[in-house]
Design goal:
Elements: H1 2-20, H2 23-36, H3 41-48, E1 60-61, E2 74-76, H4 94-100, H5 103-119, E3 124-125, H6 150-166, E4 170-176, E5 189-190, H7 194-210, E6 215-218, E7 222-223, E8 226-227, H8 233-242, E9 248-251, H9 260-265, H10 287-294, H11 300-316, H12 344-354, E10 357-361, E11 373-377, H13 418-429, E12 432-436, H14 441-449, E13 453-460, H15 485-493, E14 499-505, H16 512-515, E15 520-525, H17 533-541, E16 571-572, H18 581-588, E17 605-614, E18 619-620, E19 625-626, E20 629-630, E21 636-646, E22 652-661, E23 673-682, E24 687-695, E25 701-703, E26 708-711, E27 714-721, E28 727-735
Parallel strand pairs: 2-3, 3-4, 4-6, 5-7, 5-16, 6-9, 11-12, 11-13, 13-14, 14-15
Antiparallel strand pairs: 1-2, 7-8, 10-15, 17-21, 18-26, 19-20, 21-24, 22-23, 22-27, 25-26, 27-28
Helix pairs in contact: 2-11, 3-11, 5-6, 5-12, 6-7, 12-17, 13-17, 14-15
The structure holds 1-deoxynojirimycin (NOJ).
1-deoxynojirimycin binds at residues 59, 77, 126, 174, 252-253, 407.
Organism: Penicillium daleae
Protein name: Probable beta-glucosidase L
Domain Fibronectin type III-like: 654-724
């Protein structure tokens, strides 16, 4: 056991050494500094300034600099695929990648997105997302990111960025910072306490910087009363000094407000280079920045630093050597001159499949094998009759939901609906399919009465605030299923004793009406699975694989239980502090319907033999600043292990989860916080050692007084389990000062 532990530690340490290596940045900076000397002032200004909205083929474009062979940089959305280009792969959304809890799939998805971006000549892919983190369950863009838990989000950021950047494209971690809702997003101030900021909202960005992310996007909102893109506190001090970020900060589109202050605060690139609004064509940088430098209000050194950072990121990714030309235009239908999709559909399918979360499975109604007849019910079972891309930026909820709406989207090359895939399967099993693919309850009841088993599809959608869908201005008006989904399920459950409910949703949905129906035997949570939706669902429903997704957020019994939600206000005081999602439910003793980390399998898992090996010393983290923060913060300080056995009769994958509770000497902290997880693929009766490596950060809190991460002294609580509430093993360890 001990030997195994050391070999686990040795391999993870080797991986870490790679990701922390600053040699890549040093070499890139040397090249950038040499190139800087060859540039004239106009070229420098052009490198930091967008060419105006729709002024080039991509959603963001800068000016080229011939003297050093530097191109007009192409910046393109989105976090789930290349936006406004086709053909591309429409991957499962970030929230589904989070729901897999599978590092290798997060990496594979990032690598495939990166390969498509590079193939299309995109220099900077505008993702992944860690803000919104998702403290508001009704926040419109929570599905673009991975999880409301900063640890899970952080791992997903790191894996995705490494995948993308190893494919050659620059990643962009966004939106920095506190961009938790769509209403008033350009005016609201996120007033976040220093401790909650560090332990929740900054945390996943630390992972992003540690993974050497090339760029960061500052957000629309204000942070503590100052615009994000004008804030010395969050750009210079936090992102660059404290986190040691060596890449560049770009503005969200039109999130810049001044020429001089933004430059002094640490903004390095303005996007898209013109004001969307008024007066038309107004611009803060470009010639205005040149004038400000000439007048001495912005030092020349600041411009040189912006340019150096942007060039260094370009060299870091070797984009100076034979990078493809842009092969599409966002403004003419996006038809690309190359096909970059490769076999990425299979990556999309595996991520979608392994993100399916089985919430309920009474009497083992799933998997279904050879039903004589199946009723397929609901408009969410079929593709929008007008086509999967009929609504611009997916700004409608017609047909099966496979991504949210807004800039975080891509064109579907095709969309396999649940009905398509179930029909194909039913030909193999000789099942009669009875369809009712509207949300009409009378037709639904009739179909349900005629079949052995009824599968009802419902959904809930949200997106970016520039589009309003069915009265939802980005953020969701409520957490109920759309299109009267509760009534649809009730109508079906009144007529059929074997009802399976499939939910496609951007985030939590209140399921109480559905759970209360005794005939609803199974609930399948499919999130927003992208183009392979139906195939992935059939893989799980028919038992080709066991479901293995786990909830990346809590599903409450009622909306108010979350204690947070988007505000119709100009200030959000983040008064809940650290107590969001399960941290809040645990602290307040609230019982969720389905807790964070929950998800069933077709098999069962047994946990035993907890091993605790921790050698941390109490006190503040010191050491030089490396990408991510003080070096000591990322050093291994031990590992927790457990034996996990597949105790059932079919193969399956378990996400073993580690939660840590801080000692009483720490200031008030959530009872337990996720600090490790491992997805284990196990054949029936097979056992394996789960090993959760701990770093100093995992045991630390942010000490506001000393402005340092501190490992408190005292007794730490260790919880290992199958979810945040299904704790199977417990222990403690003590750290002394
Ligand atoms: C605004 C969005 O907030 C951001 O995520 C996106 O990258 C830009 N628009 C460009 O489309």
């Amino acid at each position: 056991m001990i030997q195994l532990l050391f070999s686990v530690l040795a391999t993870t340490a080797a991986v870490r050494a790679y990701s922390l290596g600053s040699a890549g940045w040093d070499a890139a900076y040397s090249k950038a500094e040499r190139a800087l000397h060859k540039l004239n002032q106009t070229e420098k200004i052009g490198i930091v300034t967008g060419v105006t909205w729709e002024g080039g083929p991509c959603v963001g474009n800068t000016y080229s600099a011939e003297s050093i062979g530097y191109p007009s940089l192409c910046l393109q959305d989105s976090p789930l695929g290349v936006r406004d280009a086709n053909p591309v792969t429409a991957f499962p959304a970030g929230i589904n990648a989070g729901a897999t809890w599978d590092r290798s799939l997060m990496y594979a998805r990032g690598a495939a997105i990166g390969a498509e971006s590079k193939g299309l000549g995109v220099n900077v892919q505008l993702g992944p997302v860690a803000g919104p983190l998702g403290k508001n369950p009704d926040g419109g863009r929570i599905w673009e990111g991975f999880s409301v838990d900063p640890y899970l989000s952080g791992i997903a950021m790191e894996e995705t960025i490494q995948g993308m950047q190893n494919s050659g494209v620059q990643a962009c971690a966004k939106h920095w910072l506190g961009n938790e809702q769509e209403h008033n997003r350009e005016t609201i101030s996120s007033n976040i306490g220093d401790r909650a900021a560090h332990e929740l909202y900054v945390w996943p960005f630390m992972n992003a910087v540690k993974a050497n992310v090339a760029s960061v996007m500052c957000s629309y909102n204000k942070v503590n009363e100052t615009w994000s893109c004008e804030s010395d506190a969050i750009l210079n001090k936090l992102m660059k000094d404290e986190l040691g970020f060596r890449g560049y900060v770009m503005s969200d589109w039109n999130a810049q407000h001044t020429t001089v202050n933004s430059a002094l605060a640490g903004l390095d690139m303005t996007m898209p280079g013109s004001d969307f609004n008024s007066p038309p064509g107004s611009i803060f940088w470009g010639v205005n920045l040149q004038d400000a430098i000439a007048a001495g209000s912005v030092p020349q050194a600041r411009l040189d630093n912006m340019v150096t950072r942007i060039l260094a990121a370009w060299y870091l990714l070797d984009q100076d050597e034979g990078y493809p030309e842009v092969a599409f235009s966002s403004w003419n239908g996006g038809n690309a001159s190359v096909d970059v999709t490769d076999d990425h559909g299979s990556v999309a399918r595996v991520v979608a499949r392994d993100s399916v979360i089985l919430l309920k499975n009474q009497g083992k109604v799933l998997p279904i094998t050879r039903p004589k007849s199946l009723a397929i019910i609901g408009s969410d079972a079929v593709v929008n009759p007008n086509g999967p891309n009929a609504c611009s930026d997916r700004g409608c909820d017609n047909g099966t939901l496979a991504m949210g709406w807004g800039s975080g989207t891509a064109q579907f090359p095709y969309l396999v609906s649940p009905l398509d895939a179930i029909q194909a399967q039913s030909e193999r099993t000789g099942t009669k399919i009875i369809q009712s693919t509207t949300d009409d309850t009378i037709a639904a009841a009739k179909a349900a009465a005629a079949a052995e088993t009824a599968v009802v599809f419902i959904n809930s959608d949200s997106g970016e605030g520039y589009i309003t869908v069915e009265g939802n201005e980005g953020d969701r008006n409520n957490l109920d299923p759309w299109h009267n989904g509760n009534a649809l399920v009730e109508a079906v459950a009144a007529e059929n004793k074997n009802v399976i409910v499939v939910v496609h949703s951007v985030g939590p949905v209140i399921l109480e009406t559905i759970v209360a129906q005794p005939n609803v035997k199974a609930i399948v949570w499919a999130g927003i699975p992208g183009q392979e939706s139906g195939n992935a669902l059939v893989d799980v429903m028919y038992g080709a694989v066991s479901p293995s997704g786990k909830l990346p957020y809590t599903i409450a019994k009622q909306r108010s239980d979350y204690g947070t939600g988007w505000l119709n206000a100009e200030v959000d005081n983040f008064s809940e502090g650290l107590f969001i999602d399960y941290r809040h439910f645990d602290e307040s003793g609230l019982v969720p319907r389905y807790e964070f980390g929950y998800g069933l399998s077709y098999t069962t898992f047994a946990y035993s033999a907890i091993g605790i090996h921790v050698f941390a010393a109490a006190g503040p983290s010191t050491g030089p600043i490396i990408p991510g923060g003080p070096s000591e913060l990322f050093e291994p300080v031990g590992a927790i292990t457990a034996l996990v056995r597949n105790s059932g009769s079919v193969s399956g994958s378990e996400v073993a989860q580690l939660y840590i509770g801080l000692p009483d000497s720490a200031p008030r902290t959530p009872p337990k916080q996720l600090r490790g997880f491992q997805k284990l693929k196990l054949a029936a009766k097979q056992s394996t050692l789960a090993s959760f490596e701990l770093t100093r950060r995992d045991l630390s809190y942010w000490d506001v007084a000393t402005q340092k991460w501190v490992v408190p002294s005292g007794t730490f609580k260790v919880y290992i389990g199958s979810s945040s509430r299904d704790i199977r093993l417990q222990g403690t360890f003590t750290v002394k000062w």
